[in-house]
Each structure stands twice: as structure tokens, then as C-alpha cells.
Design brief:
7 strands, seven-stranded mixed β-sheet, 11 helices, alpha/beta, Rossmann fold
Length: 274
């Protein structure tokens, strides 16, 4: 995962940085609202990407601090540049794996994440590490994807590609980290309870997913994704060409002249450190 996000994956994310921020903004706003950072708070943003949510948390936590952590050095370089350009001074970005990073115990008031926690190798151990960093009663809020069948923005392009190339050559093993590792609310509650959190709440957060301004941008966006890479890697070139042709046709069919959007469903999860 670190190799991907410090290489091809990180480069792809930076290429589509503005698009990602626009697409994920509704869930970022929901997480910020639930986390409710306020004056003097010490905030952690897990898997912060280029820092849109971190910077906003820093603004709301006037007199406090906001720390964004991510495993991608190139992405965090962009985050630092944006914070400097915006004049946000109470924010820090650190290359770190929140699963194992030695945060100072009880040094934070709020931990939050916009789709940055589903790829933890050991969910309980990772959330327990975050819990130890929070002061007693500290707040946790994050978004995570609901099931694939509820997320047409991902399911439809994947099915379009798979119709020509079949399933991935090397599919993830059962239980491996994935975008849908926290798709089951009872599992979310169990994981967080075992990790030292209480008052766990899981609520639906459904919004249209923005894929691009037009068919060309949407195609380039989906073409560069990890999902597409996983499906196309190792496949016969003719099949790959047909799959990409079908993906472009899908984007053209979805283009109505006002941006491409498909249904998306996530969970908004809140808890407090016990």
C-alpha cells in the first residue's frame, strides 16, 4: 500500500486532486460536522490526502492544532503547499501510518477521517492506537463506504470493464484491506468497541458521486484508479483495449452536459474514547 501511494497511486491522486476534493466534499463536510472541532481542540486527520479537511479543521480549531497524517510523501507535499498558500498556520502534515504511529497518549481531542480508515491491516489494533492518542471522552468521526452494490459509481465502471477482461488476475484475499472492509455496521460497532470506543453510532450518508465535468475527464479519472489497474493488470491487450473502449462509451452515455454523477452510499461513524 505504501509503495502504491508513494508511486503510481499518489501520482494519479495528485493529477485528479481537485476532482477528488469536489467529489468527496459532501462526506468531508459531514465528518467535520460530526467531529465538531472547535476553538483550542487538538485534531487528527487520518489519511488526510492533500489536506482539504485538515485545513478546515484547523480553521475551526482556532488556538488549537490540526495534524494530518498519510502514508504518501508526494501527497503530503501538496498538502503543505496548499496550507501555506491558504495561510493556515496551525496545521502540520506528517508521513505516518496511523495504525502504528507512536502518538503521544491522550494528546488529542478529535480524530477524524474521510475514507482513510478502510485499508487498515488490523482494524481493531489500528483503532486502538487512535483511541490511545485521544484524551478520555475524545471524539472520533469518519466516513467509510457501504457495500459495493450500494455504490453504483464504483460498481458500474467495474462491471463494464470486467465484462471484457473478467475478474482480477490477483484478487484480494478474503478479509484483506479493501474499500469495503467497514461496509457492515455491526462489524463497525464491534471493531470500535473492541478498540476502546463507546457510544458508537452509524448513520447513512448518501450523495451523488461526481466523476468529472465531462466524459473525457471522467474517463481519465476512472482509468487511473486503483480499481481499474487491479482489473486490467495481466490481461490480454486486445481485451484491455475493448474494456477501455467500453468504459469510454459508458462515460459518454452518462454525460448530460452538467457533470457526470452516479449514486454513492457511505456510513458516517461517530464514537467517543471510553
Amino acid at each position: 500500500m505504501a509503495d502504491w501511494w508513494n508511486g503510481t497511486g499518489g501520482d494519479n491522486w495528485l493529477t485528479h486532486d481537485g476532482l477528488h476534493d469536489r467529489a468527496l466534499a459532501p462526506w468531508g463536510e459531514a465528518v467535520l460536522g460530526a467531529a465538531a472541532p472547535g476553538p483550542g481542540d487538538r485534531v487528527l486527520d487520518v489519511g488526510c490526502g492533500t489536506g482539504a479537511m485538515t485545513r478546515e479543521a484547523a480553521r475551526r480549531a482556532a488556538g488549537g492544532t490540526a495534524l494530518g497524517v498519510d502514508i504518501s510523501a508526494p501527497i503530503l507535499a501538496r498538502a503543505r503547499a496548499k496550507a501555506e498558500a491558504d495561510g493556515v498556520g496551525n496545521v502540520t502534515f506528517t508521513v505516518a501510518d496511523a495504525q502504528v504511529h507512536p502518538f503521544a497518549p491522550a494528546s488529542l481531542d478529535v480524530a477524524m477521517s474521510r475514507f482513510g480508515v478502510m485499508f487498515f491491516d488490523d482494524l481493531v489494533a489500528a483503532f486502538a492506537n487512535v483511541a490511545r492518542a485521544l484524551a478520555p471522552g475524545g471524539r472520533l468521526a469518519f466516513s467509510c463506504w457501504a457495500a459495493l452494490e450500494d455504490n453504483e459509481w464504483s460498481r458500474l465502471p467495474s462491471a463494464t470493464l470486467a465484462a471484457h477482461v473478467g475478474p482480477p488476475t490477483s484478487p484480494p484475499s478474503p478479509g484483506a484491506p479493501s474499500p469495503y472492509s467497514l461496509a457492515d455496521p455491526p462489524r463497525v460497532r464491534a471493531v470500535l468497541g473492541d478498540a476502546g470506543f463507546a457510544r458508537v453510532a452509524v448513520t447513512e450518508a448518501a450523495h451523488p458521486m461526481y466523476l468529472g465535468a465531462d466524459a473525457g475527464e471522467a474517463f481519465a479519472h476512472v482509468r487511473s484508479s486503483g480499481m481499474t489497474r487491479m482489473l486490467l493488470d495481466g490481461k490480454e491487450p486486445g481485451a484491455v483495449e475493448a474494456a477501455l473502449r467500453a468504459l469510454r462509451e459508458l462515460c459518454e452515455d452518462l454525460d448530460r452536459g452538467d457533470g457526470l454523477r452516479l449514486p454513492a452510499k457511505a456510513w458516517l461513524v461517530t464514537a467517543v474514547r471510553a
